[in-house]
Amino acid sequence: MIEFKSVSKIYKLEDGDLSALENINLKINDGEFVVILGRSGSGKSTLLNILSGMDRPSSGDIFFNGKNLVKMKSDELALYRRDNIGMVFQKFNLINSLNIRENIALVLKFSGASKADQKKAADKTLDGVGLLQRAKSVPAKLSGGQQQRAAIARALVNDPEIIVCDEPTGSLDSRTGGEIIEMIKELNRRGKTVVMVTHNKDYASCADRVIEMSDGKITSEKKLKESANKNTEKQSIKKRLSFLSALSIGLKNSMRRKLRFFLTSFGIAIGAAAIIVLVSFGAGLQKTNDDLMKDFSQLEEIFVTGANYDSAGMGIATVNTIDKLKEKPLNDKTMDQFKKIPGVKDAYAQARFSAEAAFNGKTAQFYASKSSPLEYAQKSAMERIKYGNFFTSDEENSIIIPYEMAKIFGYSEADKIIGQEAVLKNFNDLINPDSKVEQKEFKLKIIGVMDEKDKMIGAMIPYKTGIRINNEILAKEAAKDDPELYGSIVVRSADPKKVSEIKAKIIEMGYGATSFEDMAKSFGEIFSIMQIILGVIGSVALAVASLGVINTMLMAILERTKEIGIMKAIGARNKDVRRIFLFESAYIGLFGGIAGVIFGIIVSKIIEMIVSFYLQNSGEADFLSFYVPPYLMLFVVLFSMGVSMAAGYIPSRRASRLDPVIALRDE
User: Fold this and answer.
1) How many C-alpha atoms does 82 have within 13 Å on its Cβ side?
2) Cβ(270)–Cβ(541) under 8 Å?
3) For a designed S-S bond to 90, which of 167, 228, 239, 516 qualifies (C-beta 3.0 to 4.6 A apart)?
4) What does the alpha-carbon distance between residue 182 and residue 206 come to, in Å, rounded to a whole number?
């Protein structure tokens, strides 16, 4: 079954090489009970560690059922231990944070057994060693003898071929030690191969064969009797530690140090909350923009200018390139051309003048807001009027002024100026400031004043009134056959979905054309970039918090070095240990991510409430809005988990590479 061929083990120490084993040749048969005697430092424990696949020889070969252990990889040796070796240690090596049933079931977890099968097999094995009634007790609540019985149950639960005992009675009194030896003898009578290391020569009589060692060599070998037990070869279990079992172990381990877990998660939560607050600000602006666009009737409008700079291949116009372009005139004939384009509902002009508004010896600059026919008047424009009324006709000689203009005219109580007449004079051409316009005066009745909170400075006049004034002050230009009369023309689509198509045709005609659709896209791109930038800034906080994860996981490795050694001794592969520690990191990220999302939403709402309250009391318009889309919440939680797992990767890799023999010596 097991054969050592010229096996040596040399440890490299600072003060020189130490030979723990020297040219060992040994064969252990199926069902045999072998006792290895020797003083401390004789090499017997090293031989046992190499036999069990926990250590590797410096030279030589070890064969198990014809397979060379020396050529096996670390994970293959772990499976060899899990499926074929049951280990009983002098110091019991039970995991103190698990109860007895969980300690025993841990072997089965690494074998991929279901939860029900784990409990069933663990209880059956515990019953066999007389500890079923203590299944829920932690190791610290058991006596030394009971702990060793539990360790034997753990060694047996996976039905191994070989029971390896390293000083199994070394920590027990003589009476309890005798009981444990009787139990081991019974295991041998059932067909188990037993290899026991001890310094107590009284136990030699239990063996079929006694081997004595000194200074790393076998000094004598004595056969006491023939072994009557024959063991059959056990097929290796193909299952591995399941994903759910690894998750379960990781969660249980995470909850051991609750305060540390929550403090580390809190660091992740702060970083996650920073992402939520910053990105939700950009998302809120984008959502506000999108909502406005949905309810915006001007989405059907296309703004046409006389020159299409983009069609000239310039993208951004410069002074030199503008000079080379000849702008196409905008006039009534132009409007008629646009109205004939399929899908166009209407086209109307925009005036191109600026002026002064005079009243009662005082003047104010007249900034005309965009004028459109009443049938297309925006509801939002009407709602801006606090005093007086909106227009009732496109041709009336009237004006609606901003509140600041009313104050300039000497009316702090704006309603008192309603019905008075203002005069428009001192006109300028907005398109060609150097050109001369006919200076006339136009009396307009003030019929409305905008709200005090409305910070817009533009006044409003009826559409046809504005065009009439425009044409009168540009009379010489209007007299031309093809005048450059208007500042721009608004083309209105019958269907918002046709805006792009109509705009393309206008551009083909050589005109410049833009729409609110373009503006919406531009704002959308700006807000998207803003969200990315803000997200990156928030991610920095999360990256800093990940340092806490690294520290926590490294501390966990230091505290649980022996536990890692135990897991590897009972069959945990390197990847199993690595996965468990990675999942512990993931739980920190998961909890921190969820807490961060909740915290971020609360902070966002508090900021929004405070700013909104301030703006409303100061008379400012409130544009601040936070919006946390579901995808952002999911992303932040997953991103937090990813950052935590990335931070935990190096510690988990370090844990998986611990030497089981060295790890088991840790106290």
Assistant:
1) 28
2) yes
3) 167
4) 9
Distance CA 199, CA 217 (A): 16
pLDDT of residue 273: 84
H or E stretch including 663?
helix 660-664
CA distance 473 to 489: 18
For residue 281, CA distances in Å to 16, 71, 269, 525, 640 come to 66, 59, 18, 15, 20
Q: CA angle 192-202-36, nearest 5°?
A: 50
Which residue is listed with tokens 């007389």?
A: 130
**In 235-376, where do the E strands start and end?**
301-305, 344-350, 353-359, 362-366
The torsion angle over the Cα atoms of residues 111, 115, 116 and 118, rounded to 10 degrees, is 40
Using alpha carbons, list the distances in angstroms from residue 231 to 30, 196, 206. Answer: 5, 17, 19
Strands of 200-339, DSSP E: 209-214, 217-223, 301-305
pLDDT of residue 314: 37
At 35, the pLDDT band (50, 70, 90 cuts) reads very high
67 Rama sector, left if φ>0, alpha if ψ -120 to 50, beta otherwise:
beta
Residue 465: helix, strand or coil by DSSP? Answer: helix
- What are φ and ψ of residue 661, in 5° steps? -65, -45
3-state secondary structure 563-599: HHHHHHHCCCCHHHHHHHHHHHHHHHHHHHHHHHHHH
Closest CA to 154 of 105, 115, 104: 104
H or E, element range at 395: none
